[in-house]
Amino acid sequence: MLRLIIAAAVTLAAFVIYVVTLTPTVGLVDSGALTVAAWSLGNAHPPGFPLYLMLTHLATLLPIGTVAFRTNLASAFFAALACGMVSLAAWEMLSYVKPPAKKKAAPEPGLPPAIVAIASAFAGLLLAFSRTLWAYATVTEVYALNTLLVATILWLMLSWRRTNDTKRLYFAALVFGLALGVHHVTVGLTLIGIAVLVLRTAGMPFFRSKSFGIAAAIAIVALIAVYAYLPLAASHEPALNWGDPDDFSGVMKHISAEQYRSYLTTSEDSSQGRDLMRLVTRELGPRWLPVALLAAIFGLFTALRHDRTIFWLLLLVILAGFGWMLIYPIVNDEDAYLLPAIVALVLAAAYGVSRARKPVAMAMLILPVLALIVHWPNRDRSRFFVAKDYVDNALKTVAPNSLLITGDWQLYSPLFYFLEVEKLRPDVKAIQYGMLIRQWYIDQLELRYPDLFAGVRNELAVYRPLLAAYEAGGPQWSDVKANEMQQRLDDLVAALIKAQTSTGGHAFATFDVAMSREAVDQALVRRLAAEYELVPRGVVVEYAQGKGVREVQPVELQLRGLIDGSVRYEPDDVVVTEVLPSYRTVFLLRGRYYGLAQNWAEAEKAYEQALAFDPENMTIKRELAAMRQAAATTR
User: Does the predicted model carry a pTM greater than 0.85?
Assistant: First the structure.
């Protein structure tokens, strides 16, 4: 009963903190797209996360707040349960009593119940206030549920080890199979450690036993059942049907995340190692006082002496997580791949605490409190409106019934949510430029905007065969075809803009598309700049027919949580690395355009705003000085 009380208390404490610091609306990165997929029971980006989408869909039915708030709340719930589950896993780990080496020998004495209780509470609370889980507990993402399932698997396996109850093994197999339907890579990273636990607990003959066969069958059936969701979801044409996995081949490509394999690397770039150390050292508390991390190291060494099964389980999970990060340097959510390793580190720290004397063990409970205090400023997202404001800022200058093309995922993902779920501007046709190299996305756009795409049938007819060859890959693909495909993509984009503007409509793009500096985009940028006047309108650019500098009305942008200090960010936060530079570019280019129009007052204001986003930028400083000099000479 005490273990359940501790787990419930940990879960409640974590949930309260997560709700208090919860993002009130849609977030950045994949949050908008995941919310749409969960709300519409659609398909998200590979590997699809079917279990996550089904469970989170239930949260969208709650009669509180917006749909985005409800899916954020689901993350808080999953993460809080994960913390309670880790406390139960720690209890099972520490309650295990090694059987005597000889039949008639007395069993080794177990740990005092008070120590087990303290260490279990310590483990749950330390995970609750760890940097990474807390980050994903306050926004719509798959990793909170993934952590819950990993913790549940570890709890069940440790319980099976302690009790030899086969039903718990079968339940663990079921959860493992289902967990592969959330984020199979990070769940799979635990497999080697779990296999060693089984080997050391039941011996090699177990892998030839009936019980093992039943457990494997349960896991496989659960895996197949949960991924059967993908074609079922595709069949009802949901708002987001990423990859359109409507047949066996499509399902396998989606599950294997074929489009992301290029991220895998065996590079010897030491930056990945430095990133890993940076993430680990700040994870469980302040970098200047890494006591929790030292407790984890101490716990591993202690386990090596007293319980090598636990040592190998935790060490292998930690090493698997570290190793995967070194070969998969994806941006924005790279820390999420460490969550199983973080769970193992927390359990190792709990093992270390359990070997201390009671006063010392009780004193160690200060560490989760310290982590709470240190991480709160950077984890509090209760005033985070950056994604919503980004969308509002983009749409406020977009004329009715317009086309908006963007390559900025930090804008498109929340924009997609507001367009599809909250129906904010149903008149706007939004296209993500980078996704035009996917057949399924072209198909969805044709269904969503039939009138617009009816005007580009010829360009699509030429582009689609090249797109199919690109997605098929293999020896038939070549650099020559890649160049031709880029040319046909340029033709398609230019045709979309022409189809929109030729009937009196308006076409807009974000600066990353209209003024891209990427080499592959230069032909399109020059082509459109020659045909249209690129007029900055807020955070977007209008493709205005005819040339000549246009009058640009000043527009006040909502900039909450960016540079006003109301929300704090770490240097690797996506707001710092992607959103702030985008706004800097917006204001810089507005300043330049106002300068061309000799609207010196607005030009100076725009340059000063750009400088506020990047105070040390010498280019902005030089241009501001030159603009002021030009203004002085014309007065």
Answer: yes
